[in-house]
Structures are given as structure tokens and as C-alpha cells.
Amino acid sequence: MTNIKSSNLGYPRIGEKREWKRALEAFWNGNITQTELIEKTDDIRLNNLKKQQEQGIDLIPVGDFSLYDHVLDTSATFGIVPDRYEYDGGKVDINTYFAIARGLDDAIASEMTKWFNTNYHYIVPELNGAKPELVENRALTYYKEAKEKLGIDGKPVLLGPITYLQLSKGFEADEFAGLVETFTPLYVQILQELQEAGARWVQIDEPIFATNVDEEVIAAAEKVYATFAEEAPGINIIFQTYFEKVSHYERIAALPVKGLGLDFVHGDSLELLKTYGFPKDKVLAAGVVDGRNVWRADIGEKLTTLETIKQFVQDDQLIIQPSSTLLHVPVTKTLEEKIDPVILGGLSFADQKITEIVALTKGLNEGREAIADDIAEVDAALNELQATYRSNDDVRKAVSNLTEKDAERGAPFAERIELQDKLFELPLLPTTTIGSLPQTPEVRGTRTKWRKGEITDAEYEKFIEDSIARWIKIQEDLDIDVLVHGEFERNDMVEYFGEKFNGFSVTEYGWVQSYGSRCVKPPLIFGDVSWDGPITVKESVYAQSLTNRIVKGMLTGPVTILNWSFVHDTTPRYDIMKQIALALQKEINALEDNGIKIIQVDEPALREGLPLDHAKWDEYLDVSAYAFRLATATAENDTQIHTHMCYSNFEDIFDCIDALDADVISIETSRSHGELVSTFEDNTYTKEIGLGVYDIHSPRIPAVDEVKQNIDRALQTISPKQFWVNPDCGLKTRKEDETIDALKVMVEAAKATREELLVNETK
Ligand code: GLN
Ligand code: ZN
């Protein structure tokens, strides 16, 4: 019998039924006090720990919990608070903490961006000359809490200094090394305090090393971790990476740390072991259970992989764990009652993954026979799942026959836009929104009632129609040029399509955190995807019937639907992307047949899906652009195709955006101010574009001048003939009055700029 340990890297914060989200929102709305918020979230956190303890995980992560985001927590640990929040040192109080995340009065929220290739968003630290100090050792607080309350000798989790700084902004490239030096003693202090409190293991997350980092970054890590080894020799550091195999493997393997955490699910870490071996003095923390997907692990096969991995380590110095934190999967499948039992049998959420890890550890320590029953049970479930895979030969054939031509529109952009201009007669700087309008408690409550059968289909439809009608009127009164129906009928932009295409399944409680309190419920793709009849036509046509202005049809694109679903690996991902594109093509045709002339196909997930390994970029970007073009190719030349993406650093994918061949694109910018605009100085973009002119993630209402400045700044590099005025993203999370006030400001700013342009033109 060996002494291989089980471990976890992080547990979802949100609670089994999103209790965390409810508590946060109740606090923000003033419905519960700070004390109540703390009580409720303490309960959730302790319950998360207890579940891992009961299952028998040896190294339970502590300090992974957060009230918003772990990157923001790291900033709070070091007192990194931008000046505009008037912070004056000491522990960052909860209101300041939430102000950074959400904005407060005139102080706009910090920029938020996607965490590596996930749909999780973190708050970008703004260093701007900040003087970091250790103002709160959160890891220590949580370590002690777990020990005192539950008798757990936890494994504190820290976001490593190199990754933290690489994800921060507000400094020049040549200041990086100096900043690393500034933060090093603060981390040392955290480690020493943990060591004194009795912690034996600490997990330092450095996922940046799963991207292609340059020499300076790896050199910085060598320096920092050497200092940690000298200054805090009594604590076992696990240098944790995930989401891809590491770059600079040999140098990382030589770092003076106790353990190295590698992802054996995403990226070929096993190949690294085979090529370079594994150092004799280290523990290998092997991430073998997928922390990013919801399908049950084939325990027998994983055990075989582990047996191979084990040959590379000395004296069973092995820890078994998920490939990443479980933050990116839902909490537990035990609440699912409606899903097909065969699919349920093939699922594994966070709690089930913990069970898998415990079983694998037992299997490796005691031998395969010790978990023979588990293996047999999993095999049976997975075989049954496989036998019911919903294949569709027609779709498969259609995908395999696709050619380049199939993804081309009838005429090039220059010709299309002329026809479109003639048809729509829009003013200069046309105003529009991104699609969704506020999903008020009434909207969500009515949907819940309908789902529970408390109101009839007809009543629900009537409610949706009334909401559409009310907002068409509001948008007309606001004098917005291109209107939207508001997406009131949609719970979520991906799940809504998932429920209606063939090949998908949906869960009831399969939520994962996206940003702040906002969670998404990715559908499952288990079958070939095809179109089963119109999905969005009814609402779009109804909205269009109420107004003389143009109403945009609203779809989610193939790349986003794929990236935001939990896809089974039975069929290659890129084939499924094309299947989705063909299904969307039919939906677009149906919209056009019913008189919808502007159709937006959202692709907010295109960039986050970019593989972390640069070597895989070209293929991904080519296929993604192809799939988008395929979905939109059969649209008439005078039908205007819009797309939307919500992020700002798109230098990396500029060519791909161009290759989408969308007539109009809207993108988010307001949280990163002018950075994006400068991209246009270096690249020529000839199609139409709307840069978000105000931040919808914050409840704050912008001033007219502020919005106008954003427009003016954009117009320095983009021609007014190409430019659209729109918010950063959809408005579903905002309150109605906030939305109306902010849109009023936006339209006013657009009109003021328009007037200036016309005056200048006649001069
Ligand atoms: N049309 C969607 C909406 O407005 C787009 C959302 C998104 O980009 N994430 O909600
Ligand atoms: Zn968006």
C-alpha cells in the first residue's frame, strides 16, 4: 500500500442552488445587512469544505472561496485599490471591495476580462504606481477557520505573483521585474504566517505558465520561487498550472518547490514526462479528472493513465486531483430530476468529480481490485450513454461535403453595404443596443411560474408580447435607430438555443459562475446538432409588426454555442461547430422569409476559446471564422448581418474578426477606455463597427460628456460613416430605470456628435 494523496484545487462558490448569488444580490439591493451576508456566505463556504472532508479528500483547498473574484481578492490582500475609490489603507472593507467590482457613484468599476480560455471573468488589477502592502492575509484567515471550525488542515490557495502581475495593468513592460521584486516579500510574509499557523501545503496557482510566456517571465519565476524556498522552507509549495501543458517545462520542473501541478486533460503533459522525465525530488500533482467538463470520468482508463504517470515519479510522490479548480463546473448532479436518466448517468459535477478522485486514489494505493465495483458501474453507465448517442447521418454528410464556397455571401461587403444603406436609410452614427433588455424580477418570476405550470403557455406568451410591446415603445421614445425585441423569452443566450436544437440537453441546476454573481447554465451537447424548426421568428416578427423602425433579429453564433456548452467528445468539436452553423443558417433563412432584415449573430465567446497554446491558434481561428460565415452565408445581400463580442483585447484576433465578413460588429470597450481604439491605428477595418460607449456591467449612469468623449475618441481612428453607437453589452442584468436613463444619455451623446459632424461637414 502506498501513500498517494488526493487533492482538490478549488470548489465552486455558488452553492447547490446559487445561494451565494442570492445572498450577494440581496446585500447589494439593501435587503440584507452585511452581517447577514457574511453569515450566509460563511455557511456556504463551510458546507463546501465539509463535503470535501466527508468524501475524504486529503488536501482540501482553503482560501479559494470569494465574495466576487479571486483576482480581486488578491488585489485586496495587497491593498491594491485604484485611487478613485478613496481608499486610505488597511484592510479593504466590503463596500470598497464591491465598488471596485461594480463601480460606485462617479468611480467606474475596474475592467473585467476573461480568465484564460474560460467564461469566468476576473477584475483586472490596476497597479498605477500602487504601493502594495500585506493588508490582510486572507489565506491565513481561511486556513485557521477550516482548522478551528471543521478540524481541516487545509491547503491554502494563492494566486501566484507572476500570474497576478501578468494579468494586471497600469505599468510599463520594463517595470515588470521591479514589481515582481516588490511583491516577493509580501508573498513571503503570507507563506511564513501560514507556516507558523501550521500549514504544511500551499497551492500557488501560476496558470500563466500554461500560455507561451517569454524569457523574462520564466526568469522572474526562478527568482521568486528561489526566494520562497529560502525564506519559507518549512512549507510545501505546489506550483500549480492548468488549462494546457506548461511552456518551459524543464525550467519549471527545476524550480525549488515541493510539488508541481500539471493538467493531464488539456494539453499533452504526459508527453512532457515522456520526453523530459520528472524530477526525483518533487511531488507530481496530477490533474487527471476534467475540471472543465461535466462528463463522467472513465475511472478504469484514468487509472491506467495514472499507472503510467506513476512510473515517472520517485517513491509514489504523487497527488491525484482534478485538472483545474472545479469552479468551472456545476456543484452537484444529485438535484437533476428532469434530465434523461441515461445522460444523467454519464454526468459528473463537482461533488461527483471529488468522488472520482477519491476512488482513483484508492485504486492507485490499494490496487485496481479495490475499486472494481466503481469501475464496473462507471463502465456500464458510459456504455449505455454511448449506445444512445443521437446520431444524424444527414447532418454528418452535410458537414463532410462542405466547401469554401458554402461559406461565402452573394456579394462582397462593398456591394452589400450600398444595398443595405439604400434600404435602411439610417442616420450617421446610428444608435442601437446589443439585444437583451432588463430581465426584471417580474420577467424571471413569470418564466418560473410558466415552467412550473402555474400559468398557461398562452398567458406566458401574452406576457412576453406585452414586454416586447412596452419596450418597442420605450425604444421609439428614446429615439433609438435600430430596435431590439429584448430577449425576454430567453433565460440565457446559449441555453435558449440548446433547448430547441436537436442534439442538446439542458440541466436544471447546472450553473457555473461567469462574472460576479452572474451564473450561466451551459447546455449539454450529446448528439449531432440540427435545426428542428423556427426558434426566434415569432418574437422578432411580433416586434417588427409594432414599429416602422428596423428590429434586429437576434441569434447566438456557432462558436459561442459550442464554447459555452458542455460538449461530449464523441464527435470532433469542430464538426459540431459546423453542425451548429448549418442549423443557424436555417434559422436565418426563416427570419428573412418573415421580413427580418437585420440579423445579429453574437459571438462573445470567440476570443476566450482561443487555445492557450499559440501553435493551435490558426486552426481554431480559421474554423471559427468559417463556421460564422457558413451560418450567415445564405443571407441576402441587403440583409445586414451584425455580430457582437464582449471583450476588448482583440489585437490577437483582428484578422479573424475581419474574416467573419459581418457587415457590422459591436464590441465592448468602455472598461478599457482608449486601448482598443488604438488597435485601429495599426489595422485597417473597412466594415461597420460599434464600440461600446458605456459600461453596462455597472449600475452607474454615465454622463453625456463621458459617453461623447468615448465616441469622439473612437472617431479619431474610425470614420463616422462606419461607426455605430451602442452600449458595451446586453442589458439583461440592469434595472429598467437605470437602462432607460443610460440609453437616454447614449442617444443624446450620439445626437450631439452627429450634429457636430454635420456642422463641420458644411463648413
Ligand atoms: N444579445 C446578447 C444580449 O444582449 C449578447 C450577450 C453577450 O454578448 N454576452 O444579451
Ligand atoms: Zn456582450
Descriptive report:
The protein has a domain at 401-762: TIM Barrel (Alpha-Beta Barrel), CATH 3.20.20.210. The protein is an alpha/beta fold and 763 residues long. The strands form 5 sheets. An 8-stranded parallel β-sheet has the order 1-10-9-8-7-6-5-2. Strands 11-16-18-19-20-21-22 form a 7-stranded parallel β-sheet. 44% of the residues lie in helices and 13% in strands. It is globular. Helix 15 (393-400) crosses helix 22 (573-593). The structure holds glutamine and zinc ion. Glutamine binds next to loops.
Keywords:
763 residues, single chain, seven-stranded parallel beta sheet, binds zinc ion, alpha/beta, binds glutamine, 22 strands, 13% strand, 27 helices, TIM Barrel, eight-stranded parallel beta sheet, globular
Concise structural overview:
With 763 residues, this protein is α/β, with parallel strands linked by helices.
Bound molecules: glutamine, zinc ion
CATH architecture annotation of the domain at 401-762: Alpha-Beta Barrel
Stretches with pLDDT under 50, minimum 5 residues: none
Oligomer: single chain
CATH level 3 topology of the domain at 401-762: TIM Barrel
Under CATH at level 1, the class of the domain at 401-762 stands as: Alpha Beta
SS strand fraction: 5-15%
Shape: globular
Radius of gyration: 26 Å
Secondary structure blueprint with pairings:
Blueprint lengths: L4 E2 L12 H10 L5 H22 L5 E2 L7 H8 L16 H9 L9 E3 L6 E3 L14 H13 L4 E5 L1 H6 L9 H22 L3 E5 L9 H17 L4 E5 L8 H5 L5 E5 L5 H8 L6 E7 L9 H12 L7 E5 L18 H5 L4 H17 L5 H16 L5 H8 L12 H12 L16 H11 L5 H22 L3 E3 L10 H4 L3 E4 L6 E4 L2 E3 L3 E7 L6 H9 L4 E7 L1 H6 L2 E2 L5 H21 L4 E5 L14 H16 L7 E6 L8 H6 L4 E4 L7 H8 L5 E5 L11 H12 L7 E4 L9 H27 L1
Parallel strand pairs: 1-10, 2-5, 5-6, 6-7, 7-8, 8-9, 9-10, 11-16, 15-17, 16-18, 18-19, 19-20, 20-21, 21-22
Antiparallel strand pairs: 3-4, 12-15, 13-14
